[in-house]
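Module 6 notes. Inverse folding takes a fixed backbone as the condition and produces residue identities as the prediction. Think of it as a translation problem where the source language is geometry and the target language is the twenty amino acids. Below is one complete input and output pair. Work through it position by position during the lab.
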């Protein structure tokens, strides 16, 4: 289902002219501040306030991180509430998006850093078991496809928690079954796969934009462990544990060592690797969600695309959402609206982004910590874009050609 919001008729009730300038507002979230839907709504409000004659469509986006379920819901998916165990063992619920065929399960609401108490990371004791519980619950709905949105995990357990919830039994040297965490992966002495749930007929998709392998200096523990609170000794422990679970699953008959070296295996603390062992195909989170949410249909006939995210930095250049939007939108002009821009302008124009509007350039306050301020600044930027050369020149040229 398309998620389209057209502009309201101008004052007086007249319909928009057939050559009205068309704008697609298609941002990601501003992490920690506003959801993608809130960003899109604020920009659209400013655009319409300045120029009621615009035809404005909003399409909140996601790239496989937090916000993926919300973006799918905005595109017409229904919400399923599923009880799960959080990353440190507390009972909670997660929301899964489902349209009768495809289900979207989000690591960000099952096993993420944002689910931990502020300032209390759990690099050795957290688990991905909630991800597996959500997948198992969705399987009861008989989906044709399950999408794992892998961004934002709190754990580096190699996906062992997820596998446990799906029926894999891990045992220690005494033969006792247990659910491993990152800190206890080294205790795995045996793996029993006989109880693993059947996934025949279900396409499993792992959506992320991380290309790291599972092990080594570019792997899950070394690169992402410190971001999850792991100190140097913790990283060594996690690396050893990941190596152990690879060996044990290889002994159990899975191509674990080969999968560990594949691009994306290190995503979400090794959940990417575990998903591969279940038969998942890995995809670019940005491009996959652009397809899932119907971006190509929405951009057709538009004169300008407005995209953005909380921060543009070197990670953006690796193919994150704003660049994917610019590539897919071409030759339609694209401008980005962000919380902060840490990139030179020329590096962005090379990737199809014509201009960047940054909230940090408009205020000395920390707008990321003030959602109300962020929304107000976005509305102001929307007003400025409505009168900018990017819109008037592109719109006039495009409209005259229709």
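Target side of the pair, the amino acids:
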């Amino acid at each position: 289902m398309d998620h389209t919001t057209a502009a309201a008729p101008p004052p007086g009730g007249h319909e928009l002219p057939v050559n009205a300038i068309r704008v697609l507002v298609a941002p990601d979230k501003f992490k920690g501040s506003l959801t993608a839907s809130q960003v899109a709504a604020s920009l659209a409000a400013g655009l319409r306030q300045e120029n009621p004659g615009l035809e404005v469509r909003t399409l909140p986006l996601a790239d496989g991180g937090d916000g993926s379920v919300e973006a799918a819901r905005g595109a017409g998916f229904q919400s399923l509430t599923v009880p799960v165990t959080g990353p440190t063992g507390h009972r909670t619920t997660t929301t899964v998006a489902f349209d009768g065929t495809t289900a979207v399960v989000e690591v960000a609401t099952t096993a993420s850093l944002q689910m931990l108490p502020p300032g209390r990371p759990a690099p050795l004791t957290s688990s991905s078991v909630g991800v597996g519980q959500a997948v198992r619950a969705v399987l009861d709905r008989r989906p044709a496809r399950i999408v794992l949105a892998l961004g934002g995990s709190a754990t580096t357990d190699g996906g062992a928690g997820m596998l446990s919830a799906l029926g894999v039994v891990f045992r220690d040297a005494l033969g006792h079954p247990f659910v491993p965490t990152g800190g206890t992966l080294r205790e795995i002495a045996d793996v029993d796969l006989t109880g693993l749930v059947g996934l025949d007929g279900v396409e499993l998709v792992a959506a992320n934009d991380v290309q790291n392998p599972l092990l080594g200096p570019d792997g899950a523990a070394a690169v992402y462990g410190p971001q999850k609170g792991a100190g140097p000794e913790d990283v060594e422990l996690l690396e050893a544990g990941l190596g152990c679970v690879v060996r044990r699953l290889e002994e159990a008959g899975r191509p674990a060592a080969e999968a560990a070296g594949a691009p994306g295996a290190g995503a979400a603390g090794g959940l990417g690797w575990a998903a591969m062992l279940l038969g998942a195909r890995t995809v670019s989170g940005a491009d996959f969600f652009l397809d899932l949410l119907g971006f190509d249909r929405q951009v057709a006939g538009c004169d300008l695309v407005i995209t953005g995210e909380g921060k543009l930095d070197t990670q953006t250049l690796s193919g994150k959402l704003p660049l994917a939007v610019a590539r897919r939108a071409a030759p339609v002009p694209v401008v980005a609206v962000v919380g902060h821009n840490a990139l030179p302008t020329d590096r962005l124009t090379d990737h199809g982004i014509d201009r960047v509007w940054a909230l940090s350039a408009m205020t000395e306050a920390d707008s990321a910590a003030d959602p109300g301020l962020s929304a107000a600044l976005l509305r102001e930027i929307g007003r400025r874009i409505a009168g900018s050369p990017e819109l008037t020149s592109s719109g006039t040229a495009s409209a005259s050609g229709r």
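Reference fact for the lab report: DSSP finds 14 helices and 16 strands in the chain.
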